[in-house]
Amino acid sequence: MRTVRAVLIAILGFAALPVPPAHASGTIRVAIVENARGVELHGVSIEVNELGGSGTDASAWRTDVVRAVAAGPSVEIDGRRARGFRLTSERPIQLNGREYPAALEVVKNGEGLAVVNELPLEDYLVGVLRAEAGERWPLEMLRAQAIVARTYAAYHRILNALKPYHIVASTVHQAYVGLVPSSSPVWDGVRDTRDQVLLWERGLFPAFYHSTSGGYTEDPRTVFAARNMPALKAVRDEFSTGAPYYAWSLDLRLADLSEILRRNGVNIGWVKAVEVTERTPSLRVSALTVHGTRGRAPMRGNDFRRMVGYEMLKSTLFAVAVDGTSAHFAGRGYGHGVGMSQWGAKAMAERGYRAEKILEYYYPGTTLGVLDDQARAALRSPTLVPAPRPPAE
Questions:
Q1: What are 269-281's pLDDT values in tens digits?
Q2: How far is 270 from 74, CA to CA, in rounded Å?
Q3: Are 42 and 27 in contact (CB under 8 A)?
Q4: What is the pLDDT at residue 312?
Q5: Closest Cα to residue 182, out of 214, 219, 144, 135?
Q6: ω into residue 131 within 30 of 0, thus cis?
Q7: What percent of the chain has pLDDT over 90?
Q8: Once rounded to an integer, what is the mean pLDDT over residues 12-31?
Q9: CA-based diameter of the chain, in Å?
Q10: How are beta strands 340-341 and 74-77 bridged, if at all?
Q11: 211, 277, 330, 335: least buried by Cβ within 10 Å?
């Protein structure tokens, strides 16, 4: 590992669109399950309606348990088939140990089922904050997180307006835990910032954020394969040094790495070396080449991280050395590094910075606005497909 540390010190410097009018945020459709062969939901007197039904016709019925399965092009519940079903109840509906406010829809999605929670945008944000930050974090960090999460959600609500759901309740987009008790402090972070969003050139943009920057944030244009990304300047982040994954290491057996690559269609035999060939201005790995006994495979750093696993290879801000049996990675940060570092924002709030200053620090060149007609003008890249991002915990 001395070799890796030496490389780190030498390379990284390791020494120690349209939106609704103001105050009318509207609803958002959240996929709490994106693709499953079957789901089971529990509640009290759940009313089940075929999608498109009036809710008063003879096809509606009530039950405490809903078992839905994919059946060809249809969804099947209690022997009845339709293109989808809408579930409503005066009480929360439970799925996978969490409670969600009605209404829910069960619809076909590819070969499986999606379960979609439709609810007010501001209520959704409370569930995001509890998942992404937590109740014990400082209020100013929660306020900053609420503004960023609202911007991200409002952007995707427009981007996916014609799809069955706008956003996914996972690190593909934003984590979301469903209902949150009214006594939770995260409500204050949402209420205090109602309808506030970040704007880039007076338009909504995908306000990415991540767990820990590792000391430098990243320009989104170097991470995401999309045009018209906002030119957010990478910043040196002095506030993330106390984060749990500010520094990390990974030892990966070459046999395991060879198998990981093979499963992802990279057939180069036994891995012999991993060579970093290009870095971004913030020193993240933008390109590398894996050398094997049957050839070599150049690839993007983000693709390599995806193959290895986002939780194992926590960022692309790493150095790597290979010996006879293993690849040794030493790196910093957790996530793609674009936008706000959640742990950095927490540290800033603890030092007395207000939410507005936190956002100014991590999103230079942006302005605060509200969800009004003026902000509708400039939805950024309509072909954007964001990469998964690990949560803050």
A1: 999 999 999 999 9
A2: 45
A3: no
A4: 97
A5: 135
A6: no
A7: 78
A8: 58
A9: 73
A10: unpaired
A11: 277
* Structure token pair of residue 344: 């950095």
pLDDT for 171 equals 87
Query: What is the model's pLDDT at position 221?
Result: 82
pLDDT in tens, 199-220: 998 899 999 999 999 999 998 8
Read off the pLDDT of residues 235-254 as tens digits, 9 standing for 90 and up.
999 999 999 999 999 999 99
Separation in Å, CA 337 to CA 66, 128, 219: 41, 19, 8
What pLDDT digit, counting tens, does each position of 37-91 carry? 999 999 999 999 999 765 555 679 999 999 999 999 999 999 999 999 999 999 9
- Half-sphere exposure of residue 287, counting CA atoms within 13 Å on the CB side? 4
With vertex at residue 307, the alpha carbon angle to CA 306 and CA 309, rounded to the nearest 5 degrees, is 65
- In whole angstroms, give the CA distance from residue 358 to residue 348: 7
Query: How do beta strands 340-341 and 209-210 pair?
Result: parallel
Question: What is the SS3 assignment for the chain?
Answer: CHHHHHHHHHHCCCCCCCCCCCCCCCEEEEEEEEEECEEEEEEEEEEEEECCCCCCCCCCEEEEEEEEEEECCEEEECCEEECEEEEECCCCEEECCEEECCCEEEEEECCEEEEEEEEEHHHHHHHHHHHHCCCCCCHHHHHHHHHHHHHHHHHHHHHCCCCCCCEEECCCCECCCCCCCCCCCHHHHHHCCCCEEEEECCECCCCCEECECCCECECHHHCCCCCCCCCCCCCECCCCCCCCCCEEEEEEEHHHHHHHHHHCCCCCCCEEEEEEEEECCCCCEEEEEEEECCEEEEEEHHHHHHHHCCCCCCCCCEEEEECCCEEEEEEECECCCECEEHHHHHHHHHCCCCHHHHHHHHCCCCEEEECCHHHHCCCCCCCCCCCCCCCCC
Tell me the whole-structure pTM to 2 decimals.
0.86
Residue whose tokens read 């009480």: 91
Residue 196: phi and psi, rounded to 5, are -80, 135
Residue type, 366: T
pLDDT of residue 259: 98
- Residue 11 CA to residue 319 CA, distance in Å, equals 8
Higher pLDDT among residues 373 and 138, named by residue: 138
Which amino acid appears at position 310 of this protein?
Y
